[in-house]
# Entry
Amino acid sequence: MKSLLFVPADSERKLAKAESCGADAMVIDLEDAVLPARKPLAREMLGAYAAAYTGKSELWVRVNDLASGELLKDLAAVVPMQPVGIVLPKISGPEDLDIVGYYLDMAEAANNVPAGQTKILAVCTETASAVLRMGELVQRHRPRLTGMLWGGEDLSTALGAGDPRYPDGRWRSMYEYARNQCLLACHSLGIEAIDTVYVDFRNPDGCRDNSLAARYDGFVGKVAIHPDQVPIINAAFTPSDDEIAHARKVIAAFAQGAGAVSLDGKMLDVPHLKSAQQMLRSAGLTQED
Ligand code: COA
Ligand code: MG
# Structure
């Protein structure tokens, strides 16, 4: 998934707008974009919305975290709607995924939803414990877990720290570390690595540069918080014509059968070939296209 647009579940206008935004996924939010007093209303609005939904974006729901006291109510409301999955925030370690997995088993059985159908995207850097214990998370593959995303704002709050970014917008070292941990864990597990939100939603150039940097680092998609960010993110996570042309040149350079070749004065070996093949695959192309 390239773009995941977050939409507060208690906003009729945003729900109405969201399905025409072209996001690969809509993440309807029951967590921090909804004030505690409005959570029951938000669940009701989400139910009505999901029942009438005919859009093309995958429907996901960000539920409240395990410690919130809201999660069971969320799951009871959400599982019968059969969204593609839930976004699970503020995990503190792998056991949270197991517990929520059991809850989902039960909710699916109670609602005649095929067992294991509800996927999980975990937010894996919002507590100190989750960042510290990332190594445990990768010890076992969990079939529901199809991706993870990272976030810096909640981690900064958890640490009692200040702004997680330097004044020029770069992440401070703790958040770079958490981001890298998320990236490595996702690739170890073979699941999707999703980059965090770019909060300055009136700055399209910044969003593009930030999204391109995430793709170069190995993320496959990014969270959007505003409709204007969706086309920017979709474009940034799609290889450009120049990149595709270069990838074809690299592949052609290996056609003679040598393991190391030269192209435009630079040495290329097998990792370059594999990257070029990966680039074509991510653009939905084959070597023959
Ligand atoms: N999803 C769907 N539609 C959205 C949207 C979103 N995330 N954000 C804005 N829109 C809609 C607005 O409703 C408006 O449409 P309308 O005129 O038909 O009502 C249009 O896009 C333009 O919105 P704009 O006026 O530019 O923004 P805003 O000031 O209304 O909202 C935010 C700004 C940041 C509050 C809003 O984008 C938002 O709520 N984002 C999601 C926040 C969230 O989910 N955070 C948690 C995850 S990190
Ligand atoms: Mg948060």
Q: What stands out?
A: Residues 32, 89, 151, 153-154 surround magnesium ion (ligand 2) (CB under 6 Å).
